[in-house]
Amino acid sequence: MSGGACEQRCGDSNPPKRLRTDTRPEGTEGDRDAVHVSIVMPVYNASCWLDACLQGILQQDFTGSMELSVFDDASTDDSKDVVEGWRERLETRGISVLISGHSSAQPRGVGYAKNKAIAQSCGKYLCFQDADDIMLPQRVRLQYVASLIHLNTLIGCRVERLPEGSTERYTRWINTISQDQLITQVYTSHGPTVVMPTWFCSRDWFFKVGPFDEGGKGVPEDLLFFYQSLRQGGGLYRVDQCLLVYRYHEKATTHSVKEETIWKLRVDFLQERVLSQWQSFTIWNAGKQGRKLYRCLSPTNQKKVRAFCDVDENKIQKGFYTYEESKEIPKPKIPVLHYTAASAPFVICVKLDMTGGVLEENLNSLQLKEGTDYYHFN
User: Fold this and answer.
1) For residue 256, what pLDDT band results from cuts at 50, 70 and 90?
2) Are 266 and 181 in contact (CB under 8 A)?
3) Exposure winner among 30, 39, 108, 154, fewest CB in 10 A?
4) What pLDDT does 33 receive?
5) Nearest CA to 300 among 259, 271, 331?
6) Contact 241, 142 (CB under 8 A)
7) Percentage of the chain lying above the pLDDT 70 cut
8) What's 30's domain CATH number?
9) Which domain holds residue 307?
10) Distance in angstroms (rounded) separating the CA atoms of residues 280 and 261
11) What is the pTM of this model?
């Protein structure tokens, strides 16, 4: 979708008025009228994107009560003034506006800013909005309805990527994995299967799981929260409509998170949730990624690896992989087999959607069930 198309769709100057209600959502306190949905928006140097973002909020067709809660994390541009400039338009449409922030020399990070925005809000449900993205008119309404059905759940949606065509594989994955794969593919390098810019959940569930980690730059606060939600028994659900224009740019905070940090979190969660339940397993990929996974496993789980498997005849002909870093004598030697000679369950360390369909065809040929016979760790 082009930027012009987005502006045209979101540019109606006469959005529907919100229907305010006197109903105070259960479990909410404070001297302000409680609202159904708080739109939670951390802001840091987002001035150039805020007009489009706030126009999208103005255009929501949800008829319950809403508020916008903004926390400015020491911006050095005029972000706070831009938001303030929208106050009258938003409040005229029945959307309360809360703006706060700090002016320290350094930003405290997105986790801190989200926590502050949540703390000053009072909605029974939280709709997370990044300042550089654009919510489409049905977003709050459809995610609110889904949250009433799917309790204790992180609700997401499909997205359109801007600029069009950027991160093509990632965007396709966000939009096309099945509801079951929202659970089974949580160990992949893509991160949360319900992506953070689309999150919607109840305030009660947020406080059962959270708050966000406030470690600052380089901390994957969204992945930490996501895994903790799953540990608490939380569900995942995606509204299968595009409700958000998800902007890609080099200044996004995602780029500050180190790959090794994400890798370790994924390995630990895989061991906790999957490998602890298996007596033995095969690592699908005898190359760099498969060997790296093996080396990162606990000694207990290393001993559960019965083999590596691959399609590369050169690796298979070598017959085994020797774990040279081991202090054991003799050093462990793990067989390397052709995938057709290997036994399930598997941890798949080959990237999805990168082999022209060969990996997927090979998996299908074995008639395996994802989440039982194999998990992706790619």
Assistant:
1) low
2) no
3) 30
4) 56
5) 271
6) yes
7) 90
8) 3.90.550.10
9) 274-376
10) 26
11) 0.89
